[in-house]
Design goal:
Elements lengths: L15 E5 L5 E2 L1 H7 L8 E9 L6 E6 L7 E6 L4 E7 L5 E9 L6 E7 L5 E5 L2 E6 L12 E3 L2 E2 L3 E2 L3 E10 L5 H9 L12 E3 L13 E3 L2 E3 L3
Parallel strand pairs: 15-17
Antiparallel strand pairs: 1-14, 1-16, 2-11, 3-8, 3-14, 4-5, 4-11, 5-6, 6-7, 8-9, 9-10, 12-13
Amino acid sequence: MGNISLPFPIPTNSFVLTFDGAASVLDLSAIVTDELIGTYPNGLTFAAWVQPITATGSTMVFAHRADAGNPFWMLRKDTSGFWHGMVKDEATTVITLISTSAVVLSEWVHVALVSTWAGTSVLYINGSAEDTDTTPTGSTISCTRSLLGGMDAGAVSQFFQGNMTNVVLAPFAATAPQIAVLAKYQPAKMLPGSTLLYTDSETDRSGNGNDATVEGAITIGVG
């Protein structure tokens, strides 16, 4: 594969987020709206190692959405048991991507959704592109809620049950070789005992108490 340059640090199994499928989400809204300004001229990338536990219904891995009528950008396990990426821009152009491989419960899988806006959205499973759409979309997906483990379509729903780690959310479209590098770092093959330093203000931005459980990490207070 050679040396592939990544514009972000490679996550190394430093924490595991556990979602209960009933109420727990991790709200990234403050990070997305403050730091990414809700507009992504260079595209968007979401990637994570995911371990789904339940087969019931449609459950959301990541959703950037505010209500039922707004644009959205999201990655989920659909009701048929396949990975499903969806993009809807300000002009209501809708893109749907579906994996060729079904979800395997209790097994870790690397999932990624990448959009360039100029004409390509790609759903990756374990580092390989499984579905691609070349429909151009607008570069603005202006929403007020960005959630791991659920979706806000007027109310939070479609709660994910299972675990996530090595999460990447970036305001640009990662290349196929970059996604392949991220998919190499499988949780089962990593050294145990790694830790991540993070501020406790990062665990729940929503203030609703429904943050995910962070396991195996060191919490640094912010005063």
